[in-house]
């Protein structure tokens, strides 16, 4: 009987994780799309230097950072994918959301910039578990040089 209760508790946590994780992910993607439209006029490019035909008036370092956690259901699904191999689809949306959010925050830190050059994106895993190879959440840092030109 106790095993059935534990199994039911585990299944309940999975379902709760799936429900709330899906709701939060949809909300976050909606917010990202809305803000990407707002900041689409600020190009963020990986050029190492300013194009020759542009005379720079001002420049400054801009940074955007975010930490996003994976929900319980996706963590469970990733464990199953690890057993059989292949793409870890649960982590792909986590990384996509984190990267897009970090770039948006970088753009928001300098809303009057005409161009952001030399954009770099770095990702780090923040593990919540003592088990090796598990990901609890990730941090993504986006940085570049915001410029205004004449």
Briefly summarize what is shown.
The chain has 150 residues and is of the alpha+beta class. It is built from three helices and three strands.
Order of helices and strands: HEHHEE
Q: Which CATH class is shown?
A: Alpha Beta
Placed side by side, the strands forming the largest sheet appear as 1-3-2
CATH superfamily: Hypothetical protein apc22750. Chain B
Integer-rounded radius of gyration: 20 Å
**Quaternary structure of the protein:** single chain
Helix content: 40-55%
Fraction of residues in β-strands: 25-35%
Secondary structure tally, helices: 3
Largest sheet: 3 strands, antiparallel
Q: List segments where confidence is low: pLDDT < 50 over at least 5 consecutive residues.
A: none
Overall spatial form: elongated
The whole-number mean of residue pLDDT values reads: 86
Number of domains: 1
CATH architecture: 2-Layer Sandwich
**Helical/strand content category:** alpha+beta
Stated plainly, the CATH topology is called Translation Initiation Factor IF3
Please give the number of β-strands.
3
Distance between the termini: 75 Å
